[in-house]
Automatic annotation (TrEMBL):
Name of the protein in question: DUF2800 domain-containing protein
Single GO MF annotation: hydrolase activity
One Pfam entry name: DUF2800
Keyword Hydrolase among UniProt keywords: yes
Tagged with keyword Hydrolase: yes
Stretch list, region Disordered: 355-385
Length: 385
């Protein structure tokens, strides 16, 4: 079935498993290749080369890969190499903890037994002692992604199981996500039997519905990366439903009501922002007129057109350098990029302080410890050391 794999991709599995109709519905929207995706592809290439070398240096691989790092690539930077070096070190440390590991990189993982045309690529696949590990590198610096029951990783696990179970009798599948730019990593373990049960009883039936354009339109946090998110009626309906709040009697909101509204607000906000961005883009690019709205020039601040020229004029008028210049060091991010992560830590670690973040309300399942809790005190103690 040519092209089928693109319809039910592993990366969109969270979406089509929850909103079955999204798979076909999304197809009418333009595919937008992004710079971030291209940067991610390059980071994966670098990771594969570096891991291959590390595996051969450590004796896990007989042959050292001959592929060379392309430092002329537009995305190459010292910082990128530093992040990947950190990732490689973590993966190698993990491999060293396993018994007689068999390590494969960039493996095609075919899970088409459950999802028509379904396959993906496992960045690192390890077989050892009745267990299978799949490690997924996510180079983006958007949001931390948890490996806990992550459908994309579970599908990769299924693909790996399909290939290696008959040879190695796998009982346990461990799934890992590494996000070096967010300094985040998470792992999830599931038995092979449970994974297959999920595939047979949940994935396969929903994949069948999704392929036929049947099943439900269901809005939720998975709408975030859906191509239809800007003008999907089901999402709009679900968000407007959120605003039809059933208030308890009395002049003041109750604590439960405020807690509930906070939970709904973030999805509502995101939806409104998506609509605003879509409407603006259409008006700007395609001259679209929205009833009751017009495109105007936004407010802007004055700025110098040529700073050197300004300095020349003022110095020529005998204004003093110290009066007209504000000398400022580059920001931490720029400096880290300039020096590279290692050098930055070596030279400046002791000069960097991290002020306490502004208190923020987040849902209870957020990983950060609650302010004033023992876990929060422990975190402060570790950071102070
Ligand atoms: S925006 Fe949400 S509800 Fe609409 S198709 Fe996409 S995932 Fe489904």
């Amino acid at each position: 079935m040519p092209g089928v794999h693109a319809i039910l991709s592993a990366s969109a599995a969270h979406r089509w498993l929850n909103c079955n109709q999204s798979a076909l519905f999304e197809k009418q929207y333009e595919e937008q290749g992004s710079e971030y995706a291209a940067e991610g592809t390059f980071a994966h290439e670098v990771a594969e080369i570096k891991l291959g070398r590390a595996l051969s240096d450590a004796g896990y691989w007989k042959e050292r890969p001959s592929r060379r790092l392309n430092k002329n690539n537009e995305f190459w930077s010292v910082a990128l190499e530093d992040y990947i070096d950190g990732y490689v070190a973590e993966v190698m440390e993990y491999i060293a903890s396993l018994k007689e590991p068999l390590v494969m990189l960039e493996q095609r993982l075919d899970f088409s037994k459950y999802v028509p045309g379904g396959f993906g690529t496992g960045d690192v696949v390890i077989v050892s002692d009745g267990a299978l590990d799949v490690i997924d590198l996510k180079y983006g610096k958007g949001v931390p992604v948890s490996a806990e029951r992550n459908p994309q990783l579970m599908l990769y696990g299924l693909g790996a199981l399909e290939t290696y179970d008959c040879l190695y009798d796998i009982e346990t599948v461990r799934l890992h996500i590494k996000q070096p730019r967010l300094d985040d990593a998470s792992s999830y373990q599931i038995s092979a039997a449970e994974l297959i049960d999920w595939a047979e009883n949940e994935v396969a039936p929903k994949a069948e519905l999704a392929m036929k354009g049947e099943g439900s339109f269901e809005a939720g946090e998975w709408c975030r990366f859906c191509k239809a998110r800007k003008d999907c009626r089901a999402r709009a309906k679900a968000n407007l439903e959120l605003t039809k709040y059933e208030f308890a009697p009395g002049p003041q909101l109750t604590d439960d009501e405020i807690g509930d509204i906070l939970g709904k607000a973030s999805e509502l906000k995101r939806w409104v922002e998506d609509i605003e961005a879509f409407a603006l883009e259409q008006a700007e690019k395609n001259g679209k007129k929205w009833p009751g709205w017009k495109l105007v020039e936004g407010r802007s601040n004055r700025r110098y057109s040529d700073e050197d020229k300004i300095a020349e004029i003022l110095l020529g008028e005998n204004y003093r350098e110290e009066d007209i210049f504000n000398k400022k060091l580059k920001g931490i991010g720029d400096m880290e990029r300039l020096l590279g992560k290692k050098k930055f830590c070596e030279l400046l670690a002791e000069q960097i302080t991290k002020p306490q973040g502004k208190p923020t309300l987040v849902p209870e399942n957020d990983k950060r410890p609650e302010l004033g809790s023992i876990a929060s005190a422990e975190k402060d103690f570790k950071e102070d050391k």
